[in-house]
Design brief:
The complex is a heterodimer of chains A (108) and B (116). Chain A has 108 residues and is mostly beta strands. Chain A has no helices and eleven strands. Chain A has strands at 4-7, 10-14, 19-25, 31-37, 43-48, 52-56, 59-64, 69-74, 83-90, 97-98, 102-107. In chain A, strand 7 and strand 8 (69-74) form a beta hairpin. The termini of chain A are far apart. In chain B, strand 7 (65-70) and strand 8 (73-78) form a beta hairpin. The chains are: A mainly beta (108), B mainly beta (116). At the A-B interface, strand 4, strand 5 and strand 9 of A face strand 5, strand 9 and strand 10 of B.
């Protein structure tokens, strides 16, 4: 199946800092999504972004499908940004494959 | 906002019991999914459904079955629970559009199942 690699595995930030999370995938995809899992376990969909760039508040994402990677940018991080960020991809068969996640800790 | 509701947050069952996990979504989504999440193994797809009465196996269907009699409801069934099915179970739904069979996925809050 398709392989999804996320980096870095862990990230510690001071409040107010900016950061970039990366997602590499091993095959062409027609679906790529970013999720945030908060400390209570709730998974929130951040972006549906099979290609191009999108922005939502302090978060933005870019997917370069031809080069098989996506980036998630967090600007002016806040403690509420803490949690695990997952990238997930699909090749058109409804089966989203998830990466192992990046654990982000934002310190006040 | 999309709401995906799972019937229980925590559930404790005995080995060999039949277990039902229920999931309801309120946005008329065509697609529904069951995942399990385990430390070190991430999220893995158990079963999904792209229409009423339709079901497809995911990556780890063994030991599970599903039922989708109505569009808004998708049930996961453990016919005879075993200790290795102790896990966090997550239900999700998504819409089908003209350009994408499976758009933005919305998750429920999860059911932590313990099988003793």
């Amino acid at each position: 199946g398709i392989q999804v690699e996320q980096s870095p595995p862990d990230l510690i930030l001071q409040e107010g800092a900016n950061s970039t999370l990366r997602c590499n995938f091993s095959d062409s995809v027609n679906n790529l999504q970013w999720f945030h899992q908060n400390p209570w376990g709730q998974l929130i969909n951040l972006f549906y972004i099979p290609s191009g760039t999108k922005q939502n508040g302090r978060l933005s994402a870019t997917t370069v499908a031809t080069e098989r990677y996506s980036l998630l940018y967090i600007s002016s991080s806040q403690t509420t940004d803490s949690g695990v960020y997952f990238c997930a991809v699909e090749r058109g068969d409804y089966k989203l494959s998830f990466g192992a996640g990046t654990t982000v800790t934002v310190r006040a | 906002d999309v709401k995906v509701t799972q019937s229980s947050r925590y559930l404790v069952k005995r080995t060999g019991e039949k277990v039902f996990l229920e999931c309801v979504q309120d946005m008329d989504h065509e697609n529904m999914f069951w995942y399990r999440q385990d430390p070190g193994l991430g999220l893995r797809l158990i079963y999904f459904s792209y229409d009423v009465k339709m079901k497809e196996k995911g990556d780890i269907p063994e030991g599970y079955s599903v039922s989708r009699e109505k569009k808004e409801r998708f049930s996961l069934i453990l016919e005879s629970a075993s200790t290795n099915q102790t896990s966090m179970y997550l239900c999700a739904s998504s819409i089908r559009t003209a350009s994408a069979s499976n758009e933005k996925l919305f998750f429920g809050s999860g059911t932590q199942l313990s099988v003793l």
